[in-house]
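Shipment paperwork, digital attachment
Item: protein structure file
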Amino acid sequence: MNKWNKRIASAVLAAGLTFSLVGCGSGSAGTQTSNATDKTGQELQQNDYRGGVIRTLTLKDSVLNVMEQMKSNNTAVRETSPNSYWTADGYQDFVSTFLDTPIITDTQWFNEEETDWDTVISQMASETSSFSAGGDEGLTAKVTRNEKDDYSVAGVSITDPLLMSSDNSTGLTANYRILYDCDKDWCKAYATATVDATLPDITTQLFEYQRVDDDTFAIQTNRERLVVVLKPVNGDKTEVATKTEKKDSQKSDTVQYVDMRNREVKEFYYSKLVKDGMRSTFTPYAELPEVEGTSATELNANIRQNELMQKYPFMNEYGDIAFYYGEKDSMFFHAPADMNEKWVFEDKALQQAIVYKDGILVATTYNKLSDSYERFIYARSDADSSITKSLEDMVVINSLVGVVEEAKVSQSPEDTADTGENSETDATSEESSEETEQESLPDTESSTEENN
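Attachment content:
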């Protein structure tokens, strides 16, 4: 999979700066003029697909900032476990592949508020992407504005090595659909391809962004799920973004929002599917019977179907891909209230599962070198350690695919020596705490837990 390292640089605004999304069809020229010197600030306020992408990238930066702060607690683990996935190289791997699907950057130009359609096409043609060769060569695919907040791109070559692993997938092209719901602040972009006329189309790429409420946001790609909860403005839960304007009244009901870049992350939940694996929510193709006694017509049909599916080992007869979420897994088929940690950790074939809440980070990662899952727990000195267990329980290592049984965990003498009344106070007064836990996959040795 192509890796994308491009990030939107954060800018610092005055503490009192606020923004609001306006209703569908309404302009925001006045607000944009007042922020003319801050292009990202303008785009954060846009009630269109471009605005949704910029809000996604801003949330991405906010999560990375939290991870960078918590990474400083990793020193002891790095020294005692040099082959750990969570080493400097492993952490950088997380950073470089976090929300890295190309469809986000490829489709970022679609908007209704920033400029006109001809300029959108010109911008897209000038940048090298899946749709364009850039420079003088320009667009290599057909880009269409179907109507407001609805776009399509046709004839895009597929270069994903996972999908190209089958010789029968050579030369596949994908068609894209890009949608935005301006009433709810929802983005959806997905690419589909036809591998065989007798089979449903497969989803080759996926990007979804949803404002659940003004403090909660959900994002999904073909391998990742993320829910971010920001600290409420003024300590109170603010109104849902869909109530930005009353349509049955002349009076505006616009809700003011503090600039997203200045808001603190209270909690987030993140998961990434294993690469080259099979997600637990995937149903593999079951070969049809080829036995005597079956009618000749049925037998021949079963043989043809089995031979066809053997050509595409990465998918089933419904068009689902073994290692990717597809359009059928859209978050918009769920109620907004279901966008929580259970949804994030629904699949059990995870390369990474990260939980963060109020200064405590629990990172569970699959170590590609040791063939085992590792868990790292870091806490700020001012964090409430009483919630750590509940955060750990959100991702149960021995329920992940490939783990046969829960490994026995040893405890160091230092952990049991202090049983006095001040042990809890001493624990919370430490500068940071780190804990690693490994659960072995089949054919690996029993793992241990190290407390540093």
